[in-house]
Amino acid sequence: MMPTSPVVAAAVQAAPVFLDCDATLEKVAGLVKEAAAGGAGLVVFPEAFVPGYPDWVWRTTPWSDQAWYERLYDQSVEVPGPATEALAAAAREASTYLSIGVNERDGGTLYNTLLYFAPDGSLLGKHRKLMPTGAERLVWGQGDGSGLVVFDTAFGRLGGLTCWENYMPLARAALYAQGIDVYLAPTWDNSDVWVPTLRHIAKEGRVYVIGVTSCLRGSDVPRDLPRADEIYGGDDDWMARGNTAICGPDGEIVAGPLEGQEGIVYAAVDADHARKVRRQFDPVGHYARSDVLRLVVDCGAKPLSVSAREAPEPRPPDDEPVDGR
């Protein structure tokens, strides 16, 4: 592992400009600048922040939301593309690491994707949510193991999982096995058990956990969408109240939780401290018992399309002789 230096992490709890990619990116750039001015070297945004989480799938009948989906599809992010260039510029201008959840458009499928940018604006990588939850499967495809990666940074090894992926023990173990120090958990979950989940992961992995949630009201939904007034109320109709929090490697809450308002939660992160805390419990070291328990992870990409050159030779029908005789 590389030597590390402490860093200030900023978890941004905010509302996107719902289903408007360009306006949301403009807001992101301002918030990244604000966080950097507050001393942050790592800025983290919520799940599917650009152009917003498709909350309506929990409030509508399946397949009755075509106009909503089409707006989301049109405003989603291609990787690479103009939106990633704008995000790269925001990271570069603020000279900070940036992680942000986006709706990624790849052909005819959308993915719930977490992007990572370095301070020079380079795209370090992306993670597609492995398993969309419940009604989310009407919107997003499934990711693969190629996104189960961590990145070496000046402040430690950085990675994360999205929302209820964090309830997948083997996915967590895959990140622990790569020596993760700073664990991101962007989410839409507003339940009263979410912050305890963050604390558990921090204690289990002996890592810093940055949990960040959006903060949206029904009044944030554009009224030109079909049945918007029927599906969403006004300011008192919360889509997400937020519960952004940062936890330390002993499972303690070091910042937040922030609820019911937009804001930025800051905390100092020291990976060297986290590594030393593992003296007591290292889930992939002295406490792993690899002689008894082992994890196999397939980190290969699983593209669904192949070129003509890669396609297999046509196979004759089973009842047709291969040599044609």
From TrEMBL:
<dbReference type="GO" id="GO:0047427">
    <property type="term" value="F:cyanoalanine nitrilase activity"/>
</dbReference>
<dbReference type="InterPro" id="IPR003010">
    <property type="entry name" value="C-N_Hydrolase"/>
</dbReference>
<dbReference type="Pfam" id="PF00795">
    <property type="entry name" value="CN_hydrolase"/>
</dbReference>
<dbReference type="InterPro" id="IPR000132">
    <property type="entry name" value="Nitrilase/CN_hydratase_CS"/>
</dbReference>
<feature type="compositionally biased region" description="Basic and acidic residues">
    <location>
        <begin position="310"/>
        <end position="325"/>
    </location>
</feature>
<feature type="active site" description="Proton acceptor">
    <location>
        <position position="47"/>
    </location>
</feature>
<dbReference type="InterPro" id="IPR044149">
    <property type="entry name" value="Nitrilases_CHs"/>
</dbReference>
<feature type="domain" description="CN hydrolase">
    <location>
        <begin position="7"/>
        <end position="271"/>
    </location>
</feature>
<feature type="region of interest" description="Disordered">
    <location>
        <begin position="305"/>
        <end position="325"/>
    </location>
</feature>
<protein>
    <submittedName>
        <fullName>Cyanoalanine nitrilase</fullName>
        <ecNumber>3.5.5.4</ecNumber>
    </submittedName>
</protein>
<comment type="similarity">
    <text>Belongs to the carbon-nitrogen hydrolase superfamily. Nitrilase family.</text>
</comment>
<keyword id="KW-0378">Hydrolase</keyword>
<dbReference type="InterPro" id="IPR036526">
    <property type="entry name" value="C-N_Hydrolase_sf"/>
</dbReference>
